[in-house]
């Protein structure tokens, strides 16, 4: 079961640093504030103290599964959590952002440590508008659950919902790979049909494929993107 043992520190550099290959599968690390929170592609992840759910989970995916898919698995679990607690429809911007009302409210970072994957999830819960970074480097406007529906939530309750969702999505993925999650994933595909830019090349995102790659139609043909950044037109 994901969530035990749990290491909690009031403040730390990054919860990603609190877990290592010696920890059992399902171990988690949480904090109220990160002084050097890590985002994807070497970026920072910044939050005002005591406003976000910040959690890392240690997983040992079976060899027959493709570990990079875990970003999508966690993004789906986080989107479902957002839907559970807000009753609004959330979307997934491939490969790792969770969107609500066109704002990024959560990000996922998967890092390899030995034979384990440390999956970090940052979910903006109680930030007021002025507590959010002005604009993310990716030009996606940030938001929090509070800026969307005005409610202040108990972060422990949101964490508990999130851990349950991650546990279920991970078990499904272990058993059947992305296939078992594909309908839920495809139904929340934020980029589908949007004008996007991949490595400088413009195109139109078609869909997340069943193997987790993003299909993009460009002037020079259909691209199947495995990693990196996809920018979209507003
Ligand atoms: C991104 O969108 O670039 C990924 C952000 C991931 C942030 C979370 S917060 C918990 C964990 N600890 C970190 O330092 N990063 C992840």
- Mean of pLDDT: 94
Distance between the termini: 40 Å
Radius of gyration equals: 17 Å
What is the overall silhouette? globular
From N to C, what is the helix and strand string? Answer: EEEHEEEEHHHEEEEE
Number of strands: 12
Enumerate how many helices there are, as a single number: 4
β-sheet strand percentage: 25-35%
Low-pLDDT windows of residues: none
- With strands numbered from the N-terminus, the spatial order across the biggest sheet is 1-2-3-7-6-5-4
Q: Bin the helical content.
A: 10-25%
User: Helix/strand-derived class?
Assistant: alpha+beta
Instruction: Say which molecules are bound, naming each kind only once.
Output: biotin
Largest sheet: 7 strands, mixed
Oligomer: single chain
How do the strands and helices of this protein lay out in sequence?
Elements: E1 6-9, E2 28-31, E3 52-59, H1 70-86, E4 91-93, E5 97-100, E6 103-113, E7 116-124, H2 145-149, H3 155-176, H4 182-186, E8 195-198, E9 201-208, E10 214-218, E11 221-225, E12 230-232
Helix pairs in contact: 1-3
Biotin binds next to strand 3, strand 6 and strand 7.
Keywords, separated by commas or semicolons:
single chain; 29% strand; binds biotin; globular; alpha+beta; seven-stranded mixed sheet; five-stranded antiparallel sheet; 234 residues
Could you characterize the architecture of this molecule?
The strands form 2 sheets. The protein has a 7-stranded mixed sheet with strand order 1-2-3-7-6-5-4. It has a 5-stranded antiparallel sheet with strand order 11-10-9-8-12, with no helix packed on it. It has helices spanning 70-86, 145-149, 155-176, 182-186; strands at residues 6-9, 28-31, 52-59, 91-93, 97-100, 103-113, 116-124, 195-198, 201-208, 214-218, 221-225, 230-232. The chain has 4 helices and 12 strands; from the N terminus they run βββαββββαααβββββ. It starts with 5 loop residues before the first strand and ends with a strand. A hairpin with a 5-residue loop joins strand 9 (201-208) and strand 10 (214-218). Helix content is 21%, strand content 29%. With 234 residues, the chain is an alpha+beta fold. The model has no long low-confidence stretch (mean pLDDT 94). It binds biotin (BTN).
